[in-house]
Amino acid sequence: AAACAEAWVARLEAEEGAAGEVAVPVTGAMYTMVIDAHGRSSSPQSATNAERVLRHMIGRAEGAGGTVDGAADGGSDMGIGEESAESAETAETTTVYTEESLMQLTVAKLRTIVPKTVKGRSRMRKAELVSQILESASAGQHPPAPSTPPAPATPRTATVFPTTIHYNAVISAWARSTDPRRVPGTEARRLLDEMAAVARRHPAGAVRPDTVSYNAAAGAWARSAGR
Question: Is the pTM of this model over 0.70?
Fold first, then answer.
């Protein structure tokens, strides 16, 4: 069941990246479900598999330009001020019309740029429309440039950052672990230390040990008796 749940989430991730849009976004609850499914399985590798899902989440978050606490790193995205300046510069650019370029447009498109004084003449032929546009341009009256379809949106994918809930689910998985080669308490302590280190680096982040973390770690140490 755990393997099926993980394969299902992996399929959603693949479809998300291929389509370039988020039709069914992968959520944090889905990852929690997969981690918990591994942690409750009867396999000796249950906790190892649960933690592997957490490491996968961290890898995806870092690959998206973020950190484990969900804060995005500084990127090269254009700011609002820069975008406005570029738009203003584009608006000031004068379109140079030629007969050849205008004749390639449809009559409907030509009617959108023909001077206002002749727009009422609905029966004008294409050649007459082109002539009116060229005459208007030569007289210093620049009709609006033909509208162009907007550029396709940049593909967006959902990035899910690990939180305290995901770490706690993995610690709980170690508390139930039956792997004879690992000491559950040691693994739980390692994850607690990792959570505390993340919280120190990012005080406002989404990862920090809480009561559930310490209770689960205590359960892991209780299971470690005799190891």
Answer: no
HEC-encoded secondary structure of the chain: CHHHHHHHHHHHHHHHHHHCCCCCCCCHHHHHHHHHHHHCCCCCCHHHHHHHHHHHHHHHHHHCCECCCCCECCCCCCCHHHHHHHHHHHHHCCCCCCHHHHHCCCHHHHHHHCCHHHCCCCCCCHHHHHHHHHHHHHCCCCCCCCCCCCCCCCCCCCCCCCCHHHHHHHHHHHHCCCCCCCCHHHHHHHHHHHHHHHHHHCCCCCCCCCHHHHHHHHHHHHHCCCC
Q: What CA dihedral angle connects 193, 168, 188 and 67, to 10 degrees? A: -40
Half-sphere exposure of 202 (CA within 13 A, CB side): 18
The dihedral region occupied by 22, where left means phi > 0, alpha psi between -120 and 50, and beta the remainder, is beta
- Asked which of 32-36, 115-119, 172-176, 188-192 is least confident by mean pLDDT, the reply is 115-119
